[in-house]
């Protein structure tokens, strides 16, 4: 008798721990429907348009000198901004999660701020600083230093826009982790750097990698802010996203979407790679 | 908390953080403030309370609010499904979530306008079945902002769900709680701060969005004209002060919003810590 | 172990970074030849794509020097602002004189009399504003008055952000004045009705073309004559028709050498020849082929059939750009009032 009640309770408990099948199916359907509608469809359209005139047209759009120059500039921008913002993200996360100090929530908010600044403004502020009419305009002119409408301006605007990504990923995780392990290592006499590389880094590496990937994706894809500081000189100061817009306005649909497909492709490949890595890791 | 005596690197880490933050973010942003100072207070008020400006604030804030709400709902469902269930192609869908970060906003705008235009795939469907036009109407702005917002919500809720200690669910179940009770009393309160953050980030991002919106909004004054477009309009008229005045007001609102959210989170964290 | 992999990855990344930076340096030094930057507005892309090789050839024949020409295209206001903010344009070729005027007003980059330095108000080509409708002209749109009818959906860019759109607007305004005994009240009413029919206000002329063609929005697109024929060429004469109204505006897109920049870059000779050569027979031929109205009489005669004769008002007759800008397009000007009504 009591055994029966026991099993009954067990099944009831089991039921309370798992979603009923209809809920499960329903939720998966909603989620996938939403993803298909808002993500797959746009992605599909990008690919469809990119290949609408065949593989050769796609390839020649990509190998065209202006596209190549844009791709190179985009890569360079990402290569400068991502490491800088990564170092910053780690330092900021370390300071914020490992110590108590006044103005901490203000600092956290300020780090988030670039997320919420309109891309148009993110570009304009650099024009206000370094433009010919800007704060440093005359000095820069006199010394023939080009910032706006040249690579440095594009890099600065991208730095601004992608500023919070790594820090945003690390802060909650490191807060959650606590610092017992690190304290233990330190009290055993390990140096600060050694503790960081052998204790902290292995613990945060996935979040870090993830933040880096997101930062990279955004650095390559940023449009609004870069558009303001670029000057749109073909083959010179057009990044890939700007090149996409230029091609689209040239009525070169294949060229435009071929460029867009690279950006989308880069993001997806890196993210699939990342989840494969994670998967392997969890198997071990 | 009296931790940290033993932890090294406080000064260099905080020093670097503050210096870098100042160089990359604060000093550039401060130019907005200084530029607006060239206006008298009355001029400033006159600019931002102009009825056209107020109307665009209403459009931007309403659209961002609706979009953030919708994205939050679907974002939570998506995060839940991706964390808790297994199904074919999950890894691919998972990778796809960040697409809006990577795709240039202009491309997003062009693509969404193509899909939702009255002769487009979904636009036609919606037009024929429910008689609603999406692209070139305020609804178009909402659609673009939902797209932009997806990763913000999913990626803030997902880690919390992953970290979530299922033993709490088990304990509740053993005390006879039903599935609905477990969700509403245990799971939801725990992920709520994350949802709130995702919502706030989406909202703050949506209010300032320009690239994708102008392609799909229609840009009709008082109806579908967003704040960033007005800023651009002022710039095109060589009216830097007017542009910075509007930009500054947006910045202040965003800052306050983020600040409140961060305080809310802190409060939620402390409260859950006491539980 | 793990840290090793980590370091290896970092090393690979650093290596890639150095390679790419090296590449950038190489490409920069390869550009040792003199380059000229032409900052232009949106619809001239095709024109200068064709003109630049011609000029490079001409300059080579004349001096033996090989020059490179860089192009930047965008909305006229945005482009002029970029030049003001330090974009080092040797020459600007913009949609309207107002934006070039600002280069003098705000920063003295050019002399005050810039517009009298080259023939024909410094406009090597002119254009006018026409309509594009869908094949068969289902809404029977013949003239400006048809654009104000109920149920006609109009596509035109926002005159506050697009130079071309200001020409569109002023053409409609002048038409209304002409047909209403110069009554401004009637013209305001006319313009109001026209813009109430606007389904989308894109930020630039190209954006409007896309809305009309790709998005299939609207019954009629108001645009540059050259852009209208480009639509036929690019998207099919079997799908669209160009309608030339009875009356329009003489659109003069002017050009100017940016003195301050060419002096600094040592490009005076190329820059002034680049603009002067636009008036040559060879260049005018290209201009006509791209459906801009040539200013050279012989070439104009040769392509006469291509350009319908219609009555054109000039910007001077409207009191010049400064007045027009202040009255119509400044904040709370006539254009804003259209939308303010009833709000």
UniProtKB/TrEMBL annotation, chain A:
The protein's topology relative to the membrane is: Multi-pass membrane protein
Q: Name one GO molecular function term.
A: ABC-type sulfate transporter activity
Could you tell me where this protein is found in the cell?
Cell inner membrane
UniProt KW keywords: Cell inner membrane, Cell membrane, Membrane, Sulfate transport, Transmembrane, Transmembrane helix, Transport
Read off the InterPro entries from this record.
CysW_permease, MetI-like, MetI-like_sf, Sulph_transpt2
Q: Which PANTHER family would you find in this protein's record? A: SULFATE TRANSPORT SYSTEM PERMEASE PROTEIN (PTHR30406), SULFATE TRANSPORT SYSTEM PERMEASE PROTEIN CYSW (PTHR30406:SF1)
Q: How does it assemble?
A: The complex is composed of two ATP-binding proteins (CysA), two transmembrane proteins (CysT and CysW) and a solute-binding protein (CysP).
ABC transmembrane type-1 domain location = 71-278
Q: Which residues form the signal peptide?
A: none
Protein name, entry field: Sulfate transport system permease protein CysW
Q: Where is the chain membrane-spanning?
A: 27-48, 69-96, 116-136, 148-167, 253-277
A GO CC annotation recorded here is:
plasma membrane
Quote any Pfam family the record assigns.
BPD_transp_1
User: Which gene holds the coding sequence for this protein?
Assistant: cysW
Q: What does this protein do?
A: Part of the ABC transporter complex CysAWTP (TC 3.A.1.6.1) involved in sulfate/thiosulfate import. Probably responsible for the translocation of the substrate across the membrane.
From TrEMBL, chain B:
* A Pfam entry, by short name: BPD_transp_1
Entry-linked InterPro entries:
CysT_permease (IPR011865), MetI-like (IPR000515), MetI-like_sf (IPR035906), Sulph_transpt2 (IPR005667)
What PROSITE patterns is this protein classified in?
ABC_TM1 (PS50928)
Keyword Transmembrane, does the record have it?
yes
Q: Which UniProt keywords apply?
A: Membrane, Sulfate transport, Transmembrane, Transmembrane helix, Transport
**Subcellular localization, as worded in the UniProt entry:** Cell membrane
Note the topology in the membrane.
Multi-pass membrane protein
| Gene3D superfamilies noted in UniProt | MetI-like
An example of a Gene Ontology cellular component annotation for this protein is:
plasma membrane
- According to the record, the segments passing through the membrane are 12-34, 61-83, 95-116, 136-154, 186-204, 210-233, 245-268
The ABC transmembrane type-1 domain extends over 57-265
Q: Which GO terms describe its molecular function?
A: ABC-type sulfate transporter activity
Per UniProt, subunit arrangement is: The complex is composed of two ATP-binding proteins (CysA), two transmembrane proteins (CysT and CysW) and a solute-binding protein (CysP).
Q: Which PANTHER family match?
A: SULFATE TRANSPORT SYSTEM PERMEASE PROTEIN, SULFATE TRANSPORT SYSTEM PERMEASE PROTEIN CYST
**What family does this belong to?**
Belongs to the binding-protein-dependent transport system permease family. CysTW subfamily.
Function, as annotated:
Part of the ABC transporter complex (TC 3.A.1.6.1) involved in sulfate/thiosulfate import.
Protein's name in the database: Sulfate transport system permease protein CysT
| Gene from which this protein is expressed | cysU
From TrEMBL, chain C:
Q: Which domain of life is it from?
A: Bacteria
List, alphabetically, the Pfam families matched.
Answer: SBP_bac_11
Q: Which Gene3D superfamilies match?
A: Periplasmic binding protein-like II
| Location in the cell | Periplasm
Molecular function as annotated in GO: molecular carrier activity; sulfur compound binding
Q: Which GO terms describe its cellular component?
A: periplasmic space
Keywords assigned by UniProt, alphabetized: Periplasm, Signal, Transport
Q: Which GO terms describe its biological process?
A: sulfate transmembrane transport
Spell out the SUPFAM superfamilies in the cross-references: Periplasmic binding protein-like II
Similarity-based family: Belongs to the prokaryotic sulfate-binding protein family.
**Which named protein is this?**
Sulfate transporter subunit periplasmic-binding component of ABC superfamily
Recorded source organism is: Crenothrix polyspora
Which classification does the entry list for the species?
Bacteria, Pseudomonadati, Pseudomonadota, Gammaproteobacteria, Methylococcales
Which gene does this sequence derive from?
sbp
């Amino acid at each position: 008798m009591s055994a029966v009640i026991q099993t009954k309770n067990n099944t009831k408990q089991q039921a309370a721990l798992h979603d009923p099948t209809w809920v499960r199916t329903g939720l998966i359907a909603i989620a996938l429907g939403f993803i298909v509608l808002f993500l797959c469809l746009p992605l599909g359209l990008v690919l469809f348009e990119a290949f609408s005139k065949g593989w050769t047209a796609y390839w020649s759009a990509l190998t065209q000198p202006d596209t190549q120059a844009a791709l190179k500039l985009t890569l360079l921008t990402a290569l400068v901004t991502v490491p800088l913002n990564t170092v910053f993200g780690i330092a900021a996360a370390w300071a914020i999660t490992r110590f108590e100090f006044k103005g901490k929530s203000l600092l956290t908010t300020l780090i988030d701020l670039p997320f919420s600044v309109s891309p148009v403004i993110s570009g304009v502020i650099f024009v206000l600083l370094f433009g010919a009419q800007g704060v440093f305009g005359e000095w820069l002119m006199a010394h023939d230093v080009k910032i706006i409408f040249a690579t440095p301006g594009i890099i600065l605007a991208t730095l601004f826009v992608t500023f919070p990504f790594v820090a945003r990923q690390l802060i909650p995780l490191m807060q959650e982790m606590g610092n017992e392990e690190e304290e233990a290592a330190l009290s055993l006499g390990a140096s600060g750097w050694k503790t960081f590389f052998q204790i902290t880094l292995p613990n945060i590496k996935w979040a870090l990698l993830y933040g880096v990937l997101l930062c990279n994706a955004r650095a390559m894809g940023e449009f609004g802010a870069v558009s303001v500081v670029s000057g749109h000189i073909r083959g010179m100061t057009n990044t890939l996203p700007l090149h996409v817009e230029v091609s689209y306005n040239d009525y070169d649909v294949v060229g435009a979407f071929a460029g867009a497909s690279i950006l989308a492709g880069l993001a997806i490949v890196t993210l699939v790679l990342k989840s494969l890595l994670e998967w392997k890791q969890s198997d071990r | 908390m009296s931790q940290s005596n033993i932890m090294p690197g406080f000064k260099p880490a905080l020093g670097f953080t503050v210096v870098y933050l100042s160089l990359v973010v604060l000093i550039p942003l401060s130019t907005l403030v200084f530029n607006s100072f060239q206006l008298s207070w009355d001029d400033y008020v006159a600019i931002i309370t102009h009825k056209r400006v107020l109307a665009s604030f209403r459009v931007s804030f309403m659209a961002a609010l609706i979009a953030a709400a919708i994205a939050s709902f679907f974002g939570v469902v998506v995060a839940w499904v991706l964390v808790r269930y297994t199904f074919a192609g999950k890894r691919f869908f998972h990778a796809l979530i960040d697409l809006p970060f990577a795709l240039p906003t202009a491309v997003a705008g062009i693509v969404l306008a193509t899909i939702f235009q009255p002769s487009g795939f979904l636009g036609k469907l919606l037009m024929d079945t429910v008689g609603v036009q999406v692209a070139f109407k305020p609804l178009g702005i909402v659609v673009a902002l939902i797209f932009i917002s997806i990763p913000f919500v999913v990626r803030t809720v997902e880690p919390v769900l992953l970290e979530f200690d299922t033993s709490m669910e088990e304990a509740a179940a053993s005390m006879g709680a039903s599935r609905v009770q477990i969700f509403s009393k245990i799971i939801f309160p725990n992920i709520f701060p994350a949802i709130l953050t995702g919502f706030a980030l989406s909202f703050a991002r949506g209010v300032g969005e320009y690239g994708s919106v102008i392609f799909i909004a229609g840009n009709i004054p008082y109806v579908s004209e967003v704040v960033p477009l007005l800023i651009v309009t002022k710039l095109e008229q060589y009216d830097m002060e007017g542009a910075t005045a509007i930009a500054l007001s947006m910045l202040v609102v965003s800052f306050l919003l983020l600040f409140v959210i961060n305080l809310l989170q802190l409060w939620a964290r402390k409260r859950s810590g006491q539980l | 172990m793990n840290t090793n992999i980590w370091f290896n990855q970092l090393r690979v990344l650093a290596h890639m970074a150095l390679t790419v930076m090296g590449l950038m340096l190489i490409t920069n030094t390869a550009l040792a030849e003199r380059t000229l930057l032409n900052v232009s507005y949106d619809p001239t892309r095709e024109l200068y794509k064709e003109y630049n090789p011609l000029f490079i050839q001409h300059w080579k024949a004349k001096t033996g020097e090989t020059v490179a020409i860089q192009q930047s295209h965008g909305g006229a206001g945005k482009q002029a602002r970029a030049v003001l903010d330090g974009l080092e344009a040797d020459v600007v070729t913009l949609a309207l004189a107002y934006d070039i005027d600002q280069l003098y007003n705000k920063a003295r980059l050019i002399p005050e009399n810039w517009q009298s330095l080259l023939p024909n108000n410094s406009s090597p080509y002119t254009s006018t504003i026409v309509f594009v409708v869908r094949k068969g002209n289902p809404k029977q749109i013949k003239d400006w008055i048809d654009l104000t009818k109920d149920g006609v959906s109009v596509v035109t860019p926002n005159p506050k952000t697009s130079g071309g759109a200001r020409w569109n607007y002023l053409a409609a305004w002048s038409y209304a004045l002409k047909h209403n005994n110069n009554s401004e009240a009637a013209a305001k009413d006319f313009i109001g009705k026209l813009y109430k029919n606007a389904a989308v206000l894109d930020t630039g002329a190209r954006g409007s073309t896309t809305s009309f063609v790709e998005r299939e929005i609207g019954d009629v697109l108001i645009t540059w004559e050259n852009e209208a024929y480009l639509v036929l060429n690019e998207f099919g004469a079997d799908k669209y028709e160009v309608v030339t109204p009875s009356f329009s505006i003489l659109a003069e897109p002017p050009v100017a050498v940016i003195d301050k920049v060419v002096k600094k870059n040592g490009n005076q000779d190329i820059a002034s020849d680049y603009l002067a050569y636009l008036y040559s027979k060879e260049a005018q031929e290209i201009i006509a082929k791209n459906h801009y109205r040539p200013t050279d009489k012989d070439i104009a005669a040769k392509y006469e059939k291509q350009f319908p004769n219609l009555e054109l008002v000039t910007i001077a007759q409207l009191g010049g750009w400064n007045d027009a800008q202040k009255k119509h397009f400044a904040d709370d000007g006539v254009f804003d009032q259209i939308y303010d009504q009833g709000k």
